[in-house]
Amino acid sequence: MSAVQDCLFCKISAGVIPADVVLESDSAIAFRDIDPKAPTHVLVIPKKHFADVTDLMSNDPDLASELLTLATKVAEHEGLASGYRIVTNNGEDAGQSVAHVHFHVLGGRSLSWPPG
Ligand code: AMP
Known about the structure:
The chain has 116 residues and is of the alpha+beta class. The chain contains three helices and five strands.
């Protein structure tokens, strides 16, 4: 595992900063968002650091599949059979606030579209 200095999600992955972990795999970890936007709001991150989806897909596209696999397991674990959203904010204009790639898994209520 690479821990990038001052990366919040690397510290969560390393257990240095606590998180409410929902599920974990060899390569990824899923934990509850500290500021949930829906009844279920879980973040799925790789244990290895990538800044965003562009970085991830350029360097380890197979890992993206593992992250989405864990995201679907989170949805099942959380009982979101009636629907859920997987979203990632990539870069400043998209509103990405933590520069460690993550997928939001949102559900438990009706979700509007399009996003703001
Ligand atoms: P984004 O804005 O797409 O980069 O998403 C970052 C997410 O990380 C936001 O939804 C934050 O609420 C969440 N977040 C920030 N700090 C923590 C933390 N310590 N534990 C859990 N979630 C966090």
